[in-house]
From TrEMBL:
The keyword Calcium does not apply. Keywords: 4Fe-4S, Iron, Iron-sulfur, Metal-binding, Repeat. This is 4Fe-4S dicluster domain-containing protein. Residues 137-170, 180-209 form the 4Fe-4S ferredoxin-type domain.
Length: 578
C-alpha cells in the first residue's frame, strides 16, 4: 500500500495514498462535522460544514485528497466560524418546527447545530416555499425542510439509477425536483425509500398510516390482523436503543398483541407459500423453456423498476404476489372461512421494512372480490412510533409466539429478508422436489454475501443446470438487465432486491445517521441476525411447514392450482420511463 505523511492538528500521521482529509481525520479520532457527505453516494461538497484550514485556505475536507506533507488544522477560530456561518445560513431557510418533526432527535442538522453551539438563528430573510408532496402512497416530500445537500439525489441516481429526482433551477430558487416538476406519484420513483434513508433531515419521510391503523384498532366491528416481514425483527430493537442486529421477534409479537391486534401472523408463512408457488413455477418454466429467466417478484421496488425501464421483460417476472400480499389473500379467504368471519370486516395490516410495500398494497391488481389483500402497510419505524405512543416498555417485554393457522414460517421464510435469501429458500425446496427425497443440505452459501451481483451455476439432482444471478441494489440490477439486453448474459433464475443488502436495509427500517453507518456495517449485522434466526428454527424448509401442507390439503389443492392462481398470482403494468 502506498502511503503518505500528513500533519493534522500538529500530529504527524501516515495514511494510505488517496485518502480524503475527512477520512484521515476521522481515523485519528478527530471529529469533523459533515452534512452533505455520504460515503459512496454523495460527494458534492455543497454544505461546507466540513471545512478545514490548509495553509491560508478553507477547504471542504470530504472531497480533499490528502497530499504528502499537507498541514491541516481542523479546529481554529476561522474553521469554527466558517462552519457556524454555513449552518446558520441553512437554518435561516429551514422549517424549524423541530418539536413536531418526525426526525427530531435523529436529525443530522440538529446534531451539527448543537455540536457547534448555535443558540440563535442569526440570519432572517426570505424563505423558499413549496407545497408538500403527498401524492405518493409511499413517500412524502417536504421542501421546507430540505437543505439541498443532494444526498437523496445521490441515493436515487448514483446508487439506484432510478433518477426520479434531481436538482432544478438556480441560486435561491434551487429545488430538488422530479422531471418537469411533476408530483412524485407521476414520476419514475419506485418507492424504495433509499432517499429517506439518505436524507439527513425531515425533508423525506414515509407516508404515515399510523392514525388509519389506530382508527381500525379502535373499531369494535373490525377484526384486525397484523403480519410482520422477516427483516423487521432484526431492526426494530434499534428504535429502542438495542444494538444493531439484535433479534426481537418475541418482543415484537408481544408488543403487537398489546397494541390490540386480534391476530399476529408471521409473513414468513407466506414466504413459505411463495416458495411453493414460485418453485413450482420455476420447475414448469424450466420444463417448457418459456419466459426464462424466472425473475423474483417479492420486491415491489424492483417490480416497478421493471415496469418503467424494461417493460419488454415483464413476462419474466414470476406471477407470484409478494409474500405479504399472499398472506393478506389467505387471511381474507381461507382464514376468514375457517373462523367464520365476514372478510369485509377484516383489516390486514403489514409491518414491513419497506416503503414500496405501501404502493404495492394499494395496487388495483392486488385485490380480490373488491377487497385489497392488504389494507395498511406500516414501516418498522411506524411500528416503533406506535409502540412508543402506547407507552409499552418494549425492551422488558417477555417474548411471545405468533398465532396460527397461517402465522408460522420456516427458517427458509426468514432468510427472505437478506439478499440471496429467496434464492436459497427456493433451492432448499426445488432440490428436494426434483430429487424426490429429503436432503441433508440446508445452507446454499454460494448465494449468500454482499457482493452486488452473484452468479452461480447450480446443478439439480436430476442433472439440470440452473444459471442463477442474485442481485441487490437497483444500480446493480440495471447493469445486469442491460447486459442481458445486449445478449452478454443469460440465466434461468434471477433474484433481485431493490435495496443494497435486501429488505434488511429497506427504506422503512430505522434510519442510521451517516457517521454511524461509516463505523458499523449495518447490513452485515442485520444479515447475521437473519441467518441466526433461521438456524434457531426447527423447520428450515418451506415445504416442511405443516401449516403450509394443511393449507394445500384443506383449501388450495396443490401449488399453481386454479384457486392458487386466482388468489396468489398477479400481473404487471407497463409504465412510462420519463
Ligand atoms: Fe463536506 Fe458537506 S461539504 S460534508
Amino acid at each position: 500500500m502506498d502511503t503518505i505523511k500528513i500533519t493534522i492538528d500538529g500530529i504527524e500521521t501516515e495514511i494510505a495514498k488517496g485518502t480524503t482529509v475527512l477520512e484521515a481525520a476521522r481515523d485519528q479520532g478527530i471529529h469533523i462535522p459533515s452534512l452533505c457527505y455520504l460515503k459512496g453516494i454523495n460527494h458534492s461538497s455543497s454544505c461546507r460544514i466540513c471545512v478545514v484550514e490548509v495553509g491560508p485556505r478553507l477547504i471542504a475536507s470530504c472531497t480533499l485528497i490528502a497530499e504528502e506533507g499537507m498541514k491541516i488544522q481542523t479546529n481554529t477560530k476561522k474553521v469554527r466560524d466558517a462552519r457556524r456561518t454555513s449552518v446558520e445560513l441553512l437554518l435561516s431557510d429551514h422549517d424549524r418546527e423541530c418539536l413536531s418533526c418526525s426526525r427530531s432527535g435523529g436529525c443530522e442538522l440538529q446534531t451539527v447545530s448543537n455540536d457547534l453551539n448555535i443558540r440563535k438563528v442569526t440570519y432572517v430573510g426570505e424563505k423558499s416555499s413549496q407545497e408538500k408532496d403527498y401524492s405518493s402512497p409511499s413517500i412524502v416530500r417536504d421542501a421546507s425542510k430540505c437543505i439541498l445537500c443532494g444526498r437523496c439525489v445521490g441515493a436515487c441516481g448514483t446508487l439506484q439509477t432510478v433518477n426520479a429526482i434531481s436538482f432544478a433551477k438556480r441560486g435561491f430558487d434551487t429545488v430538488i425536483s422530479t422531471a418537469f416538476g411533476r408530483s412524485l406519484a407521476e414520476s419514475t420513483c419506485v418507492n424504495c425509500g433509499q432517499c429517506i434513508m439518505a436524507c439527513p433531515v425531515g425533508a423525506l419521510t414515509e407516508h404515515e398510516n399510523i392514525s388509519d391503523v389506530w382508527k381500525d384498532l379502535a373499531d369494535a366491528s373490525k377484526y384486525v390482523v397484523v403480519q410482520t416481514a422477516p427483516a423487521v425483527r432484526v431492526a426494530l430493537g434499534e428504535e429502542f436503543g438495542l444494538p444493531v442486529g439484535t433479534r426481537v421477534t418475541g418482543k415484537m409479537v408481544a408488543a403487537l398483541r398489546k397494541l390490540g391486534f386480534d391476530k399476529v401472523f408471521d409473513a414468513n408463512f407466506a414466504a413459505d407459500l411463495t416458495i411453493m408457488e414460485e418453485g413450482t413455477e420455476l420447475i414448469s418454466r424450466l420444463a417448457s423453456g418459456e419466459n426464462l429467466p424466472l425473475m423474483t417478484s417479492c420486491c415491489p421496488g424492483w417490480v416497478k423498476f421493471m415496469e418503467h425501464n424494461f417493460p419488454n421483460r415483464l413476462d419474466n417476472l414470476s406471477t407470484c404476489k409478494s409474500p405479504h400480499e399472499m398472506e393478506g389473500a389467505m387471511v381474507k379467504s381461507f382464514f376468514a372461512k375457517k373462523m367464520g368471519i365476514d372478510p369485509l370486516n377484516i383489516v390486514v395490516v403489514s409491518i414491513m421494512p419497506c416503503t414500496a410495500k405501501k404502493f404495492e398494497g394499494a395496487r388495483d391488481e392486488l385485490s380480490h372480490e373488491g377487497m385489497q389483500d392488504v389494507d395498511w402497510v406500516l414501516t418498522t419505524r411506524e411500528l416503533a412510533a406506535m409502540i412508543k405512543e402506547a407507552g409499552i416498555d418494549f425492551v422488558n417485554l417477555k417474548g411471545e409466539a405468533f398465532d396460527n393457522p397461517i402465522g408460522s414460517g420456516s427458517g427458509a421464510g426468514v432468510i427472505f429478508g437478506a439478499t440471496g435469501g429467496v434464492a436459497e429458500a427456493a433451492l432448499r425446496t426445488v432440490f428436494e422436489i426434483t430429487s424426490g427425497k429429503e436432503l441433508d443440505t440446508i445452507e446454499y452459501t454460494a448465494v449468500r454475501g454482499m457482493e452486488g451481483i452473484k452468479e452461480n451455476i447450480i446443478e439439480l439432482p436430476n442433472g439440470q443446470k440452473i444459471r442463477t444471478a442474485v442481485v441487490h441494489g437497483l444500480g446493480n440490477a440495471r447493469k445486469l438487465m442491460e447486459a442481458m439486453e445486449r445478449g452478454e448474459k443469460s440465466y434461468e433464475f434471477m433474484e433481485v432486491m431493490a435495496c443494497v443488502g435486501g429488505c434488511i436495509t429497506g427504506g422503512g427500517q430505522p434510519i442510521v445517521d451517516a457517521r454511524t453507518s461509516e463505523r458499523i456495517d449495518i447490513k452485515a449485522e442485520r444479515a447475521k441476525a437473519i441467518y441466526s434466526e433461521d438456524e434457531a428454527q426447527s423447520i428450515r424448509k418451506s415445504h416442511n411447514n405443516p401449516y403450509i401442507k394443511a393449507l394445500y390439503e384443506e383449501f388450495l389443492g396443490e401449488p399453481n392450482s386454479h384457486l392458487a392462481h386466482e388468489l396468489l398470482h398477479t400481473r404487471y403494468v407497463k409504465r412510462s420511463n420519463y
